[in-house]
Amino acid sequence: MGAMSKTAVVTARVSEETLGLLDSIAAHHDRSRAWVIARAIELHAQRESEFIEFARKGVEDLDAGRTITHEELVDRIRARQARQAA
Fold this sequence. Notes:
Largest sheet: none
Helix content: over 70%
Number of helices: 3
């Protein structure tokens, strides 16, 4: 038998509209409302974690002086577009 993953129970208040959306999604996928909510939380947490890491790296670059001006960025984009068009 496979190892069981550990889970925790959480409680949240949502609007009737959101509840209806969750139920519609659950019905569409032939899954439970709890499955839809757990999946939504997992996906959001993963995306948010990735964004926080992206922002952290940006702040690290900023603190280290690894920046360019807006004009330099536009010039680089235009140069890349010109190369691709050629």
